Amino acid sequence: MKNTTALIIVDLNNDFMPGGALGAEGADAVLPVINELAAGDAYGLVVATQDWHPEEHVSFDQWPPHCVAGTPGAELHPHLDDANIDVIIRKGFDAHADSYSGFYNEHGETNGLAELLRARRIEAVDIVGIATDYCVKATAIDAATKAGFRTRVLLNGCRGVGLEPNHIPDAIAAMRAAGVEVVD
Ligand SMILES: [Zn+2]
Questions:
Q1: Distance (Å) from CA 47 to ligand 1 centroid
Q2: Considering the chain, what percentage of its residues have pLDDT values greater than 90?
Q3: Which of 41, 87, 139, 184 could cross-link to 102 by cystine, CB 3.0-4.6 Å?
Q4: For the whole model, what pTM was predicted?
Q5: pLDDT value at position 2?
Q6: How far is CA 80 from CA 31, 100, 183, in A?
Q7: Above pLDDT 70, what percent of the chain?
Q8: Distance, CA 92 to ligand 1 centroid (Å)?
């Protein structure tokens, strides 16, 4: 029987790693966890999202410039084993629209991820990556609601930013409220 669950790896760009423009503390600790998940036979498809911005991007009003297309900070971390990744979905490439979610940008335009998953007959998704309280949260909520997939977030493969102490717990609560199964 074909495996109808996909693994979605959110934004392991160098700029979100320690030392990057928007580095999350301890984020590189998820790399071996994610490599092992992606190498196993639990998934019918493995997709990585990649934050990928033009030099002038609307998100740079709120955040330091990061993940500028063609720069080393925009590349996925070299220790992410790309041999196990089937497809890379870029997001945030429109200068006037940010896209925390791997599925849809802030204007509701698709990044192509939902269509890809449907074309591959995927019914459920497991989500890991960075950051729990931003792009993982947005991707998981869109997966469960707008895109309509059975959705789990595997917290041992995620790291958050946690600018305020409540941000990560609040993100987990918001995902659960949207129907996402959050697995410790
Ligand atoms: Zn970004």
A1: 18
A2: 98
A3: 139
A4: 0.98
A5: 67
A6: 6, 20, 22
A7: 99
A8: 6
Is the pLDDT score of 63 beyond 90? yes
Distance (angstroms) between ligand 1 centre and the Cα of 23 equals 12
Average model confidence (pLDDT) for the chain?
A: 97
Residue 53 has φ and ψ, to the nearest 5°, of -110, 150
CA of 181 to the centre of ligand 1 (A): 25
What's the CA-to-centroid distance between 11 and ligand 1, angstroms? 9
89: helix, strand or coil:
strand
Is the preceding peptide bond at 131 cis, omega within 30 degrees of 0? yes
Average pLDDT estimate for 33-51: 97
> Residue type for 136, please?
V
* Complete domains list, the chain, with CATH: 5-183 (3.40.50.850)
Question: What angle do the packed helices 167-177 and 137-144 form, to 10 degrees?
Answer: 10
Paired tokens of 146: 């707008």
